[in-house]
Write a structure and sequence with these properties.
A hairpin with a 5-residue loop joins strand 4 and strand 5. The chain is α+β, with helices and mostly antiparallel strands and 331 residues long. The chain has ten helices and eight strands.
Length: 331
């Protein structure tokens, strides 16, 4: 049985964002928040002042180092929710007002500029990361409503999702690492796909699937075996008749696969099946390097196999027999 647990540990160190980068991202976040607060205080002092809630992969601590693109840089996608909280819906303005005012607040903050997208305002940075600023109106005690330009006001609870995930991590010791591995697989598949191939599922979906089909690691804490077992469980469930679902565990409790067209569904199941089958092969092999290469096929070169011994794992346990002359050296 090929043991690639050490390669998984090294891979995890490669894809996990270090504290220095996190500090830079937090600094940029605080500067952006300060600018938005100042704008609303200066221009709308008589209206509800914005509050903020960091959300998404950074808040859940599952953010990844991106795969470098042709320019030698990757893209960090961050989310910071802006909340206007009131006792009554009467204080809610027209949806577009919030987008327009937040856009004005961040205009000129970076040299790369900003964009107004349907679900959020996005601020771009020179090092290729960007911060998405979704805007919410919240009546105290009720679910926040996202100001989505195409879908009007949508019930959405990203803070509740973060709290749900943190609670699940208390019972599932390695859940964050599993999420990172699945997202790294997604990133590599998308980077290698043809332009006409559908995109793999979002990080949000993969986070929910990781929790739903989580399998605790064995006594040896073998992450390679753990991920193999999770992939098998996930594929068996999603490929079953009427099994292709991913239910959001907080409001609005919708199925995130609901809008998947058949082509995208088949693409994901095909990639998942291939990954699952190679994971099984990798574990069943006796040669550690051959097993490593099976994993590398789905993770890319960041999953390094260059230092893995190309030999049977039990080779060192085999006894040596033969004639040793006086000049022979052995350890």
């Amino acid at each position: 049985m090929a043991n690639n647990n050490e390669q998984f540990k090294a891979f995890h160190d490669t894809i996990k964002v270090n504290e220095t980068k996190k500090k830079t991202l937090r600094t940029n976040r605080e500067a952006l928040r300060k600018r938005i607060r100042k704008y609303f205080k200066d221009n709308h002092s008589d209206y509800i002042q914005p509050k903020f809630c960091w959300q998404g992969s950074f808040a859940m601590n599952t953010i990844l180092n991106p795969i470098k693109d042709e320019g030698g840089l990757g893209v960090y996608d961050l989310d910071d929710g802006i909340y206007f909280i009131s006792d009554t819906e009467d204080d809610r303005k027209e949806l577009q007002w919030y987008h327009d005012e937040v856009f004005k607040a961040v205009e000129g903050h970076t040299d790369k500029g900003q964009k107004d997208n349907a679900p959020c305002v996005t601020v771009l940075y020179a090092d290729r990361h960007h911060v998405d600023l979704p805007i919410y109106f919240k009546i105290k005690g009720e679910t926040p409503q996202l100001a989505h330009q195409e879908s009007f006001w949508l019930e959405s609870d990203p803070k509740g999702l973060r709290e749900w995930f943190n609670e699940e991590c208390n019972d599932k010791s390695n859940l964050k690492a599993v999420v990172r591995y699945l997202k790294a697989w997604r990133d590599y598949v998308d980077s290698e796909s043809d332009n006409d191939d559908p995109k793999m599922p979002t990080g949000c979906i993969l986070t929910m699937l990781a929790e739903e089909y989580y399998v605790e690691w064995n006594a040896d804490k073998r992450e390679d075996i753990q991920l193999k077992d999770i992939l098998i469980k996930m594929y068996d469930a999603l490929s079953a008749d009427d099994g292709f679902h991913c239910w959001r565990p907080v409001t609005p409790f919708d199925d995130l696969f609901d809008d998947y067209k058949e082509k995208r569904k088949k693409h994901f199941l095909k990639e998942l099946k291939s990954f699952k089958e190679d994971a099984e092969r990798a574990i069943n092999l006796k040669n550690q390097k051959e097993g490593c290469l099976k994993w590398q096929k789905h993770f890319g070169d960041r999953f390094c196999c260059s230092t893995v011994k190309d030999e049977e794992e039990d080779a060192q346990e085999k006894s040596f027999s033969g004639t040793i002359n006086n000049d022979s050296k052995y350890a």
